[in-house]
Design goal:
Elements lengths: L1 H14 L6 H15 L2 H12 L7 H16 L4 E13 L5 E6 L2 E4 L2 E3 L11 E8 L4 H10 L3 E4 L10 H21 L4 E5 L27 E4 L1 H13 L4 E5 L3 E15 L4 E11 L9 H20 L6 E8 L7 H13 L2 E7 L7 E9 H14 L6 E4 L15 E7 L4 H4 L12 H21 L10 E2 L1
């Protein structure tokens, strides 16, 4: 009997990492992901069988049921759905736009922005006035804006190496442009797509009318970068050209949807929660592979990889697939609201919402004490070419969980090609590399393992919180 118990103890010690260094455990995690990963096949189904998952749509509901079923197959301690009411916006028929110039008729690649109203029946045709930013509109005033379509032509800055910084510098044009133009009597807005390359793909995304009355709202659409250049050049030759736009999008009443949640309950500190997640909804032009199918399946695979690697977590590891990140953050806010009501202690949260490209590292929102701990772990990631460990930023869905005592982090893949696909019809499965996706899942799992093993540092009384 003693011999049998000793064999069981040794077997269990090997399985659960007894005597292993952190370097050993990370090597096991990376090896398991690259030889027995599951993220790619999950993403294949999510992208190619279900497709785009616009908030409130049938496809979004199919994605909820599929991911819940797959999490249940992993043998987690808990899997559940968290109800949340979400907006339901429908694109309608394919948009149509054109303009005429001295060298002919130009059909324009265009798409409605998420949340926009439709054009009147038969479309809208009007002269165009070009501005560089939405802030320029007020300077022109009603005299120059009234009755016209405002064309906001602001390109992403190519010299910025951090493409998310470039995107952030232009996103307000898409989000606020229509509300500002409507104040001065514009009949519509066209926004240059927020893309880092020249092509014919229009990129959608969320826009807002703010507190503008419904009767004053105007249609808003995104134009491809190639067509933005062509329109701008043509306007220089013919400032009086007219532009035609037709779109039939519609906003409905909110509908019921769900966050999908799964958990491995901690063996020692079950009330300390480590969260990993991405957003399950996407825009509808492509299949939402990079944004954010990749983050969803990587987050699911974190829990699977921990089990496959023989790691029994001390703290509760929870995967959350958030609904409605793209046009409202309803899922994130609901999750944080319920967590606060229950008094849950989220010590660490990690989000993947920057595409499935090669992982480079992480960004962190935390205090100096915890950032110092993070930097101590950096050498563990060096063999996997993970070098980017920086303060500043985490993720939109985990943002509402922020506190002075926890750590929020975002996976940071190489971003140079991300905005070629972001919110466009070419955000599709064939643009994801299996190995890069699996490296990302392993990188996330490794950081989760370290936080599970060591926890977070207590907050000093004079703590400096960094974001």
């Amino acid at each position: 009997m003693k011999i049998k118990l000793l064999i069981l103890f040794i077997s269990g010690a090997l399985t659960f990492g007894f005597g292993q260094t952190d370097e050993d455990v990370l090597k096991t995690i990376y090896t398991t992901s690259l030889t027995n990963g599951h993220s790619y096949q999950w993403l294949d189904y999510l992208s190619n069988t279900i497709g785009g998952r616009l908030s409130g749509s049938t496809n979004a509901e199919l994605a909820v049921q599929y991911t819940k079923s797959e999490l249940e197959k992993l043998g987690l301690d808990k899997v559940w759905l968290q109800p949340v009411m979400v907006p339901k916006w429908v694109r309608g028929e394919k948009e149509m736009a054109y303009f005429e110039s001295s060298d002919g008729f130009h059909k324009v690649n265009i798409c409605a922005l998420g949340g926009s109203i439709a054009t009147p029946d038969g479309g809208t045709k009007a002269q165009v006035i070009e501005v560089s930013t939405y802030k320029d509109i007020a300077g022109l005033g009603e005299e120059k804006i009234e009755g016209k379509i405002v064309f906001i032509n602001r390109a992403l800055q190519p010299e910025l190496i951090n493409t998310f910084q470039a995107y952030g510098g232009c996103s307000s044009e898409r989000y606020r442009g229509a509300a500002e133009a409507a104040k001065y009597g514009a009949v519509g807005t066209i926004v240059r797509s927020l893309s880092s390359r020249q092509d014919d793909y229009p990129h959608t995304g969320s826009m807002s009318y703010g507190d503008l009355p419904v009767a004053q709202r105007i249609p808003s659409a995104a134009i491809s970068t190639n067509d933005a250049v062509k329109l701008s050049e043509t306007l220089k030759k013919n400032p009086n050209l007219e532009f035609f736009l037709e779109q039939s999008c519609q906003q409905f009443e909110d509908v019921l949807s769900y966050n999908v949640i799964g958990e491995i309950t901690g063996s020692e500190f079950p009330n300390e929660i480590i969260l990993v997640g991405g957003h399950l909804d996407s825009w509808d032009l492509g299949d939402g592979t990079h944004d954010d199918g990749a983050g969803v399946v990587q987050s699911m695979d974190v829990l699977r990889l921990m089990k496959e690697s023989g790691i029994t977590p001390k703290r509760s590891i929870r995967v959350v697939l958030f609904m409605n990140e793209e046009n409202g953050l309803r899922g994130a806010r609901k999750y944080a609201e319920v967590a606060k009501e229950k008094g849950e202690n989220h010590i660490f949260a990690l989000e993947s919402d920057a595409g499935g490209f090669t992982p480079r590292g992480f960004s962190f929102t935390t205090n100096e004490a915890n950032y110092s701990q993070i930097l101590d772990w950096k050498p563990l990631f060096k063999p996997y070419l993970i070098h980017y460990f920086e303060l500043g930023g985490s993720g939109a869905d985990i943002g509402p969980l922020r506190s002075e005592s926890n750590v929020l982090a975002g996976l940071r893949p190489d971003s140079q090609r991300y905005f070629d696909h972001h919110h466009a019809s070419n955000d599709t499965f064939e643009h994801v590399n299996k190995r890069e996706l699996e490296l990302g899942a392993a990188t996330m799992t490794s950081l989760v393992y370290l936080y599970d093993k060591y926890g977070v540092n207590p907050v000093p009384k004079s703590s400096n919180f960094k974001d």
